[in-house]
Amino acid sequence: MQPLQTNVPSLRGAIHVPGDKSISHRAVMLGAIAEGTTTIANFLPGEDCLSTIDCFRKMGVAITQNGTDVVVEGKGIDGLQEPNDILNVGNSGTTTRLLLGILAACPFHACLIGDASIAKRPMARVTKPLTMMGAHIDGREGGNYTPLAIRGGNLRPIQYESPVASAQVKSAILLAGLFTEGTTTVKEPSKSRDHTERMVRLFGGEVVVDGLTVSISGKQTLKAADVYVPGDISSAAFFLVAGAIVPNSEIVLKNVGLNPTRTGIIDVLEQMGAELSIENVRNEETEPIGDLTIRTSNLKATEIGGALIPRLIDEIPIIALLATQADGTTVIKDAAELKVKETNRIDTVVTELKKFGADIEATDDGMIIRGKTPLTADNLAVDSHGDHRIGMMLAIAACVTNGSMSLQGAEAIAVSYPTFFNHLQALIGQ
Ligand code: S3P
């Protein structure tokens, strides 16, 4: 049980949030299947990305990781080896789904297992198209849940229309397509994050993007690259919201990734009237980066739905907190995907925020939040439910809560932001 600091008078200072989780995973994976030595700077040494490194080591890839510096000795597209141990994906959905895409193309057997949360997350969304391509996958409930066993190889290309806007689905199919003779195509209902597309190009490969359709031709050779991982906007989001809602605050967040498929949180903050400025934008062709400054703001409610949802899906827990501190009724809809994240985030957000005074209601595909409400706690225990983003949201909520509270399951935060509490403490202290 970790005590949380409540009633924080101000948050001031500058921080570098850690590297982007999505990009860190992809840099290891593409480095492993490229030819030559890939270097990764500002890698996220969170538990999820360490799970990816561990899985590739078990397939014979030499990877050295020293804090945020990683070197991957690429094996080439056909060089991965049959693992003689189970591949443990831990809590990481991205590891599971993208790895399945690569394993689908490998002519050997592998077993994947993860933690209790992974065992509840639907995998048919990737095992179905990968099976259509020719992979043999089995698992609980017809290959929908871990543990999964896969034997790949000898794939044929598909033209796949995904029912969900999911970068994990899109990326799994594109990675399998990289090893498949012919052109593989994925169409999605709205645009999800495009880090795989951008990184395949950085490694010298070719991907064709036409609106919501992405195509890749197979048997391309990827060449090792030097990757700089921008700060994770999904981690920055906690401090963007904290800076907006805690009194007397000004926080500068340096080197934050500003890929337009990820910046929905910035659009929402602007719509709600936040005092946010963006400076020093650079690196636009690969992965754009900039510096963000947020100040205490007078906030008004907003509506969030449609094509905006995939651009901020991981930020919805912290946006829900933001909405409790805004005047009016905020409606979040078209977000049923929240139910299949690390926890059912509609349930966990609503349950936890209600405990200390939020006026929040779950709907079938999102939530309705009425603000502005004071938050108060009397020796209250809140719970991350083992979900890193719920844990961080609750720690930020505590900053604007009167009373005392503590967090159960704080260790989950190490999945994506191992230095979260150090950064929070540094901002409180200044
Ligand atoms: C991710 C895609 C998103 C996101 C997850 C990371 C990725 O999931 O929620 O945290 O790195 O591709 P979906 O593809 O399921 O939307």
Automatic annotation (TrEMBL):
Swiss-Prot/TrEMBL catalytic activity: 3-phosphoshikimate + phosphoenolpyruvate = 5-O-(1-carboxyvinyl)-3-phosphoshikimate + phosphate
A Pfam entry, by short name: EPSP_synthase
GO molecular function: 3-phosphoshikimate 1-carboxyvinyltransferase activity
An example Gene Ontology biological process: amino acid biosynthetic process
Domain Enolpyruvate transferase residues, every copy: 10-424
CDD domains for this protein: EPSP_synthase
GO cellular component: cytoplasm
UniProt-annotated catalytic positions: 314 (proton acceptor)
Keyword tags: Amino-acid biosynthesis, Aromatic amino acid biosynthesis, Cytoplasm, Transferase
Binding site for phosphoenolpyruvate: 21, 93, 121, 168, 345, 389
Subcellular location: Cytoplasm
Family label: Belongs to the EPSP synthase family.
Classification via HAMAP family: EPSP_synth
Functional note: Catalyzes the transfer of the enolpyruvyl moiety of phosphoenolpyruvate (PEP) to the 5-hydroxyl of shikimate-3-phosphate (S3P) to produce enolpyruvyl shikimate-3-phosphate and inorganic phosphate.
The protein's assembly and partners: Monomer.
Record-given protein name: 3-phosphoshikimate 1-carboxyvinyltransferase
